[in-house]
């Protein structure tokens, strides 16, 4: 079995091996893939070591190559190759008939052929002359003799020739032609050398490449490898008839063998379970650990979320959990949330805890303290943009209390898009188990754990002021226990754990009752959100409110114009504002004095009118206003600023008041002088008119 002389290349072994002889057990003898060399086939990494055993259970043709016997150049044939191959005869002489037969056959497979001898050879009492054609039809393995027919023109006779007969034997010229399919189906023909008119006058050997389907010891699943791997193998099928190839099984594959339960299994490989849940039980499932698989069940558990501040924790609460719950009021943020519960068959009573203003005149607004009792959901037709639309609404009985403590009940309809805060009125103060909640209440719901599970060493659920029970989760699990502690069982999820097992002997179930220890599991945050994606019946967001009617562009105020202009009286249109950008209007010109008469005394000369202080101040204020509007910072002028560094800010206002009073006095004096000059001018004009 270990004789290297018995080894052949993997390509020859697979090519010459007919499909009818499968399965075959082979042993890796030698080659490139020695000492645990690793290769990658179609993304599957595999390792071949000297002495490894493989069971070949099938092969599939992948490609066909021709190798030029002169240049050793390899060429791949197309799939639709239609050429015909002619056998090139073997002209080498062999000392015995057995050597020739070994050359022209392939193990137990042979085809009839013609041969002759360059010299006379003796068979018993007969002498077969040289160059006579002999047809070999079959060989008896027990007697090692060939059944032949000697042709002596025009006669022929049958003769049995021992394979040990000596002579100078060689094959006669073969004139037969074969298609590529015929060559591939015959191991004997694959050994031969051919000529093909479609490929020229060169001689070729045909090398098919197969995908080999194998089973490896202690390797999971089937292993596919090409027959072109440069390894030598030995066929040991006869020596290993009772050898069993052990294949690791995944949890899904173990479930398919449910008829063997309960069964003892050994763990060959296990991946980290930290991605799934914080469960110390899974940490005991290490390589080499033996477990008992009792049965496959459907696990029922509730997905729950607890919040503390900004931190959330997620749990699986199993039906075996013994804690007690009490209902808490639920909170809703939209009328749509209430509508979904009514559609599901619930009737709710809620209290409005936030004012809800309706943007649509068709629907009422809600105030804090209003009580709403859902009645039913319906549809109504409303007009939007002068078009009738059918919208979903929720009919409710609204109870509000006025100042005289008299309740008024009003039936209203509310749009689904209305937002607010609504708190459920809960009058149920019973204590529920997790089984009662599953049977009597509809999920999701808000609860508080009022009594912890005493069987747990640490129960985190009572520490939450509120738990949200989201929905029921059902999934297949394996009920298993450790072999050294049979009575205590726990659930092993099939879908989320990567564990490889080998099944061993069957387990005789005892009469002792099994106790399921899986009651509460804390889930990892990443696993929770991936689970939420896979769970069905996720609620859709509430509908959008209808678009408001857009006013025409002409009715909109211009963006460049700030506030709308106030109407101005016609008589005040020419009045100058002290904050206006336009300069103040000059005073009206003084009319020229008429030419005095000689008889009239010359008029009193009129002194020049000094510029009015108020107008100067007005111009300064206007210029200052213009500078301020140019977005340039100018410091406010102050007198003796250095001497007032330590003074209080009230002193600044006193200086401003003093300055304003001084300006007012100057203005009053100028006004009196202007009146005097005006009276003098009027007197002169009157005198001239009289004269």
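Q: What amino acid sequence fits the structure above?
A:
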């Amino acid at each position: 079995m270990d004789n290297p002389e018995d080894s052949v290349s993997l390509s020859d072994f697979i090519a010459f091996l007919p499909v009818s002889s499968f399965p075959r057990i082979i042993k890796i003898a030698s080659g490139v893939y020695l000492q645990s060399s690793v290769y990658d086939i179609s993304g599957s990494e595999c390792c071949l070591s000297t002495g490894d055993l493989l069971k070949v259970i099938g092969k599939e043709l992948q490609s066909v190559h021709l190798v030029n016997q002169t240049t050793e150049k390899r060429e791949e044939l197309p799939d639709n190759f239609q050429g015909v191959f002619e056998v090139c005869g073997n002209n080498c002489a062999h000392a015995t008939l057995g050597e020739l037969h070994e050359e022209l056959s392939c193990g137990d497979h042979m085809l009839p052929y013609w041969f002759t001898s360059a010299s006379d050879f003796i068979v018993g009492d007969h002498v077969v002359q040289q160059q006579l054609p002999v047809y070999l039809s079959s060989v008896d393995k027990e007697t090692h003799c060939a059944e032949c027919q000697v042709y002596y023109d025009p006669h022929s006779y049958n003769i049995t020739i021992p394979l040990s007969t000596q002579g100078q034997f060689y094959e006669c010229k073969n004139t037969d032609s074969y298609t590529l399919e015929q060559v591939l189906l015959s191991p004997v023909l694959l050994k031969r050398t051919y000529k093909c008119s479609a490929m020229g006058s060169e001689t070729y050997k045909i090398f098919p490449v197969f995908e080999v389907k194998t089973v490896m010891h202690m390797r999971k699943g089937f292993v596919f490898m090409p027959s072109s791997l440069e390894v030598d193998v030995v066929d040991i099928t006869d020596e290993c008839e009772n050898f069993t190839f052990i294949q690791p099984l995944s949890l899904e594959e173990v479930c398919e063998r449910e008829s063997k339960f309960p069964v003892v299994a050994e763990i060959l490989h296990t991946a980290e379970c930290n991605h799934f849940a914080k469960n110390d039980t899974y940490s005991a499932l290490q390589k080499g650990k033996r477990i008992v698989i009792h049965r496959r069940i459907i696990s029922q558990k509730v997905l729950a979320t607890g919040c503390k501040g900004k931190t959330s924790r997620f749990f699986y609460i199993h039906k075996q959990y013994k804690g007690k719950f009490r209902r808490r009021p639920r909170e809703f943020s939209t009328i749509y949330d209430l509508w979904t519960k009514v559609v599901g068959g619930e009737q709710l009573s809620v209290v409005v805890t936030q004012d809800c203003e309706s943007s649509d005149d068709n629907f009422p607004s809600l105030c804090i303290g209003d009580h709403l009792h859902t009645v039913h959901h319906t549809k109504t037709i409303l007009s939007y943009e002068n078009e009738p639309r059918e919208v979903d609404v929720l009919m409710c009985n609204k109870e509000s209390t006025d100042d005289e403590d008299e309740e008024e009940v009003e039936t209203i309809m509310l749009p689904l898009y209305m937002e607010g805060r609504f708190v459920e009125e809960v009058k149920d103060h019973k204590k529920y188990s997790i089984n009662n909640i599953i049977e009597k209440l509809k999920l999701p719901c808000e609860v508080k754990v009022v009594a912890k599970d005493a069987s747990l060493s640490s129960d985190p659920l009572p520490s939450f002021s509120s738990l949200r029970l989201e929905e029921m989760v059902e999934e297949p699990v394996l009920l298993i226990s450790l072999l050294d502690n049979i009575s205590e069982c726990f659930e092993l999820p099939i879908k989320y754990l990567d564990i490889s097992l080998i099944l061993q002997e069957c387990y005789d179930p005892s009469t002792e009752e099994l106790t399921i220890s899986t009651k509460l599991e804390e889930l990892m945050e990443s696993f929770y959100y991936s689970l939420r994606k896979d769970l069905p019946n996720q609620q859709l967001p509430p509908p959008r409110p209808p678009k408001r009617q857009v006013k025409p562009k002409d009715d909109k105020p211009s963006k460049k114009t700030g506030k709308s202009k106030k109407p101005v009286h016609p008589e005040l249109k020419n009045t100058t504002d002290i904050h206006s950008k336009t300069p103040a209007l000059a005073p009206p010109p003084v009319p020229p004095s008429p030419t005095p008469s000689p008889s009239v005394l010359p008029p009193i000369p009129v002194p020049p009118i000094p510029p009015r202080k108020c107008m100067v101040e007005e111009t300064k204020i206007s210029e200052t206003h213009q500078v301020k509007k140019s977005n340039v910072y100018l410091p406010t002028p102050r007198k003796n600023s250095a001497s007032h560094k330590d003074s209080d800010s009230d002193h600044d206002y006193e200086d401003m008041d003093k300055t304003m009073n001084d300006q007012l006095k100057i203005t009053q004096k100028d006004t009196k002088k202007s009146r005097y000059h005006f009276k003098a001018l009027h007197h002169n004009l009157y005198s001239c008119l009289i004269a």
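Q: And what stands out in the fold?
A: The CA atoms of residues 461 and 659 lie 77 Å apart.
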